[in-house]
Amino acid sequence: MQDREIVLEVQDLKVDIQTGRGTLHAVRDVSFEVKRGETLCIVGESGCGKSMTSLSIMGLLPKVAKRSTSALKFLGEELGAASSARLNSLRGNKMAMIFQEPMTALNPAYTIGDQLTEHYRHHKKASKAEAIARATELLEKVGIASAAQRLGQYPHQLSGGLRQRVMIAMALMCGPDLLIADEPSTALDVTIQAQILRLLADLQKELGIAMVLITHDLGVVARIADRVAVMYAGQVVEEGSAANIFSKPRHPYTQGLLNCIPVPGRTEPGGQLGTIPGVVPSLIGQIKGCAFRDRCRYTQSNCEKDIPVHHAGNHQWRCVMTSEVAA
């Protein structure tokens, strides 16, 4: 990965939302990069800031949210200073996103063909015939039989798995360099989920796309990730290769997440799985120290102060514990 082009670079990303009770710090100082052909998985509990991070990259935050960064670069271009027209020319074209809930992400009033071809014709200035040919090709590529006939159908005529495949095809229509997939398999059963993940991995390898996959399912991460960023309370608390995160988790939160997963050959049938006590704290107002300290078994007085970031090669984690204790 060292010599591959950096497609996405994020430094010190913050997203604040004004509420009646004060400022909600939804995303706090998040930094990462994704190279061409690489898959970065962002994991964490619901409400930890994963989706807000992805929406802020795409410039799709709600009006009440305010984004700030030291750098937000796509193929070297600073997006923070880009105009609305420039962002519109990139979204759906060079930067694409697969949204949550395929059952509701498609417009029920338009056919699959209309929704697949609209932005392709807009960005590529293609004819209707060229757009239909491209849509048919991609529907076949994502494993939908009778693709030409499907173009005339409406979303309600397709199953959840087929709708998700349509969403993937839609994201790939213009040949993006960056694909953000926000929990693309959450609403699907296990069999279809495995097919979708295999499809995403195969397409990424074939097309050389940089992919950011948002999920809370570590089983998904184990199958597809090159690198993993673990988020908690709006912050990345640990980042590293998938191999290191699973074999040598350093942050207590990462360790807690992994303890909640049954391991074949180690977890006895009917045995008790690990749990993480408590709930994610409120992110409204000033946040001091480690946000995980009220749920952590290693809590100490230093956890209320500034938390250092430790490094071990490309593996880093945010904790007061030394590497020896964390290991």
Task: Describe the secondary structure blueprint for this structure.
Blueprint: E1 6-19, E2 22-35, E3 39-43, H1 50-58, E4 65-68, E5 71-74, E6 77-78, H2 84-90, E7 95-98, H3 102-105, H4 112-124, H5 128-141, H6 147-150, H7 160-172, E8 178-182, H8 190-207, E9 210-215, H9 218-224, E10 227-232, E11 235-241, H10 242-247, H11 252-259, E12 309-312, E13 315-318, H12 323-326
Parallel strand pairs: 3-9, 3-10, 7-8, 8-9
Antiparallel strand pairs: 1-2, 1-4, 1-5, 5-6, 10-11, 11-13, 12-13
Protein name: ABC transporter ATP-binding protein
Pfam families: ABC_tran, oligo_HPY
Keywords: ATP-binding, Cell membrane, Membrane, Nucleotide-binding, Transport
Structural write-up:
With about 325 residues, the chain is α/β, with parallel strands linked by helices. It has a domain at about 5-95 and about 215-325: 3-Layer(aba) Sandwich (Rossmann fold), CATH 3.40.50. Helix content is about 35%, strand content about 25%. It is built from 12 helices and 13 strands. The strands form 2 sheets. An 8-stranded mixed β-sheet has the order 7-8-9-3-10-11-13-12, with helices on both faces. The chain is globular and about 65 Å long. The chain starts with 5 loop residues before the first strand and ends with a helix. The relative contact order is 0.14.
